[in-house]
């Protein structure tokens, strides 16, 4: 339900994510054994749109257990830094980096709130600031996020964001064919939801979550007003999980049946900082 932002939103969300870290580490969804063996969790469109990262520094905001972060290191980034507000998630990411034989100069992780990133990360700027899917919904103030990001992008560098499309948030869960919610809602969405996307069966205690919906126009405007130039905005008709009961798994991604009109389920964008 939509409600005013509760004062404990950050703590409620942190407890939820802390509890789910061990579930995610053991889950088939993240498949850590395959990752250790070299499986790449990054999406093909991300690799194509970000391009060659060889020799570049990369900061991953809201990195969770660090699989995407460490994958950019495998793709040649000279230094990756991951930041997340969940200390258990950061501990897990550090353990994985050590297992892969990476030094702290190659891959490091910081436990901090994303809004405090500029003061928490080890370097003042990065060639690439990356934010993966399912991150922005946990933040109430997208303008503050954009200003934080812009402060961390080095001159000549860029932000790359891949995210679930907010249009999908307004549709019914069963079929994804009916509009049930307000696309322009600004209040928090507060819900008690056990389990999660990676484990739907293990009982959980911290089930309350507080999220926000950010229309694409709001995200673009926030980045532009923070001083970044938007180079592209791409919309995608696939998603990473069965968001609606009517979706089908085809070619490794969830899509609507071929006889249904398509809508955007994800989007990606690149926003650059001019060379000083």
Automatic annotation (TrEMBL):
Coiled coil regions in record: none
The UniProt record lists the keyword Methyltransferase: yes
Keyword Metal-binding: no
SUPFAM superfamilies: S-adenosyl-L-methionine-dependent methyltransferases (SSF53335)
The Methyltransferase type domain, residue ranges: 59-159
Any Pfam family the entry gives: Methyltransf_12
InterPro entries from the UniProt entry: Methyltransf_12, SAM-dependent_MTases_sf
Biological processes annotated in GO: methylation
UniProt keyword annotations, A-Z: Methyltransferase, Transferase
Gene Ontology MF terms in the entry: methyltransferase activity
Protein name per Swiss-Prot or TrEMBL: Class I SAM-dependent methyltransferase
